[in-house]
Amino acid sequence: MVATTLFIISLFSLAMGNPLSRRTMQLHESRSGIPDGFVNSGAASPESVLKLRIALAQNDPAGLTAALLDVSEPTSANFRQHLSKEEVEAFVAPKAETVTAVNQWLSENGLNSTKISPTGDWIAVEVPVSKASELLDASFATFTHVETGDATIRTLAYSIPTDLVGHVELVHPTISFPNPLGHLPVFSTPAKVFNPAANLTSNAVPSSCANTVTPACVQALYDVPTTPATESSNTIGVSGFIEQYANSADLKTFLSDFRQDMSSSTTFTLQTLDGGSNPQSPRQASDEANLDIQYTVGLATGVPTTFISVGENTQDGDLEGFLDIINFLLGESNPPNVLTTSYGQNENTISSTLANQLCNAYQQLGARGTSILFASGDGGVSGSQSGSCSTFVPTFPSGCPFLTSVGATSSVPETSASFSSGGFSTVFTQPSYQASAVSAYLSALGNTNSGKFTKTGRAYPDVSAIGDGVEIVLSGKTTSVSGTSCSSPIFASLISLINDRLIAEGKSPLGFLNPFLYANPQAFNDITTGDNPGCNTNGFPAKAGWDPVTGLGTPNFPALLAAAGAS
User: Fold this and answer.
1) Is 485 a catalytic residue?
2) Which position among 89, 121, 257, 292 bears the catalytic label?
3) What's the pLDDT score for residue 349?
4) Taking Cα atoms as reference points, which of 242, 388, 389 lies closest to residue 316?
5) pTM (two decimals)
6) Hey, is 182 helix, strand or coil?
7) CA-based radius of gyration for the chain
8) Residue 200 phi/psi, 5° resolution?
C-alpha cells in the first residue's frame, strides 16, 4: 500500500513538472514553406535564447476601428475630434480574464512576463529554444538568408493550449521572417550642377529639377510656401532603424546649400529606444537617416522635428522595431502629429495575424491624431526590393488600411517612377474610403495582369511625391539618391505645414489622412504616365485618377490646404 501511494505521488509530481501534459494543444499559426531567399540550416541550438512576444486579445478592436473612422471621415459630425490616450486604451486593454489565463499558463511553466505596451496587450518572456519548443509544441530551426548570410531562428508552425484560444492572438518570433535587405534608397546617377539659391522664390519649376531634386524643386512643383511654421505644439517624427544615423553637420551643410532663407543652425531633437543612438562622426552618417531629416527639417520650415532612433536590442530589428516605436509613442501624452517611416518588407514574409496586430497599433496612434506615412517600396510589383516572382508581391506595412502609403514620381513634368511599389494586399481587405477610386481603376485596367493580384485587397499607394534624383548631403558631400524613401518625408512635410496652419487657427490636426485624401482628389496632380514593372511584367500602368503606382497623385499644396479648411 505504501509503495502504491508513493508511485501515485511520483506520477502526480511528474505531471506537475510537465504542465503541457495537462493541456490540450491546438495549432495556432503555420506557413506552408520557407520564404524566398531563406534556407533551412538545421535545428536551432536548444540553448539559444528567444525573446518571445505574446499578443493578448484586445478588449474591442472593432470599436476602435469604428471610432477612428468616425473622427477621420470628412462627412462625420466628429471629424477630427481625435480620441484621448485614455479613450484609445479603453478599446485596447485586454480583459482581466485574458490576463489571468495567460499569466497562469506562463506561471505553470516557470515564466514571468513583462508588459511591453501601455495597456499590456503585448507582453514578453525570454526562454531558451528548448523551453519555447515545449511551450509551443514547435520545432525551431535556424534559417539563413542566402544573399546576406543573416541567420534567424524560426518555426514553420506552433500551437497554444486550446483553452487560450481567444486569449492569445499570436506568439512572435515564430513563423514571421525578417527582411535583412531593409528598404533603403539607392544612389542615383551624379546630378547636374545646380544653383539652388537662384530658384528659392521662383514659382516656375527649374528645368534642372528633371534630373536634380532639391527643396526648391519640391516647393516649385507643389507650390509649397517657405513661410516658417509658428506652432511649437505641432511636431513631426522621423523613424530611424537598422543603425541609420542622422548627422547634424550634414544637415547644417544641406541648409546652407539648399535653404539659404533658413538658419543653417536649425536642427532636430533626438529620442531613442531599444538601445538606439545617433553618433555624429562623419563616417557614421547614413543616407536614409540624412535624407529623412534633411527633407523634413528642410521642407517643413520651422516645424519641430524629432529623429526617433530605434536600436537593435530586439530579435528582429526593424520588424519588432515597427511595434516598439508605436508603443513608445502611444505611451506619450503628446505624440507627434506626423510620423514618417521609410522602411518596410514584403507582406508574404509576415504572418497575417502579426500584420493585423501591427496594423491595429497604427490605428491606435491614428485615432489620437497622428498621420502615419510609409514609403511604399522600391521593387515595383515585385515588392519592397526587386526580385523574381510569378505573382505580384505586396509590401508591408503599406497594405495596412490605417496608414498612408507614399509612392514615387520621376522627372519634370512628373511621371510615375518605375521602382514605385504598388498593388493590392493579400492580408487586408479594401477599405470603403477607397472603394470608388479603386473600382474605377480596375474597370479601366480590364484583364491586364489578371490572376497576378487580389482585386479585393487594400490598394496602395495612396499618394506620391517626387522620389528620383533627390539631392542630399552625406559625410560632407552632396550626392543624389532615389526611392520612395525620398517621397514619404517630402509628403509628410507638407502635411506638417498644413497642421501648423490648422493649429494656428484653433483647429485640430489632420490625423489619419486617407478618408480625407480620397474625398479630395482635386487636391492632387494626377499622374497618368509610366508603370511599375516587376515579376516579368510591365506591372500596373498609371491612369487617370487613382492608380497602384502613384495613388491619387502628387500634392497640390494650396488645394490641400483649402480642402483641410485652413486659410
Assistant:
1) yes
2) 292
3) 86
4) 242
5) 0.91
6) coil
7) 24
8) -60, -30
Per-residue cell: 8: 501515485
Q: Which cell goes with 531?
A: 508603370
C-alpha cell at 549: 503606382
Q: Where do we find the cell 493585423?
A: 356
Q: Average the pLDDT over 20-24 and give the result.
A: 67
Measured torsion, CA atoms of residues 64, 67, 68, 74, in degrees rounded to the nearest 10: 170
Cell 480596375 locates to: 442
Determine if residue 366 is labeled as part of a ligand binding site. Answer: no
Catalytic residue among 208, 410, 416, 485: 485
Q: Is 547 annotated as a binding residue?
A: yes
Strand partners, 26: 160
DSSP E strands, 192-248: 236-240
Domains, the chain, ranges and CATH?
A: 214-225+234-562 (3.40.50.200)
Q: Does residue 526 contact residue 555 with C-beta atoms inside 8 Å? A: no
Q: Residue 478, SS3?
A: strand
Residue 462 a catalytic site member: no
Three-state DSSP class for residue 310: strand
For residue 95, the tally of other CB atoms under 10 A from its CB is: 14
Q: Which helix (H) or strand (E) holds 106?
A: helix 96-108
Which one from 89, 121, 169, 288 is the annotated catalytic residue?
A: 288
Reported as a single tens digit per residue, the pLDDT across 108-153 is: 999 999 999 999 999 999 999 999 999 999 999 999 988 888 899 9
CA angle 110/112/116 to nearest 5° reads 155
Residue 70 appears among annotated catalytic residues: no
Among candidates 512, 259, 287, 516, which has minimal Cα distance to 402? 512
Dist. CA 175–CA 128, nearest whole Å: 17
Q: pLDDT tens digit string along 279-298?
A: 999 999 999 999 999 999 99
| Strand ranges across the sheet with 186-187 | 186-187, 477-482, 470-474
Q: Is 527 annotated as a binding residue?
A: yes
User: Would the annotation count 545 as a binding residue?
Assistant: yes
Q: Which residues have CB under 8 Å from 193's CB, separation 6+?
A: none
Helices (H), 240-317: 248-258, 287-297
Q: What is the DSSP string of 388-434?
A: --SS---EETTT-TTSEEEEEEETTTTEE-TT---EEEEEEEPPGGG
Check if the beta carbon of residue 57 is closer than 8 Å to that of residue 168.
yes
Q: Strands 395-396, 345-346: parallel, antiparallel or unpaired by DSSP?
A: antiparallel
* CA 473/CA 246 separation, integer angstroms: 11
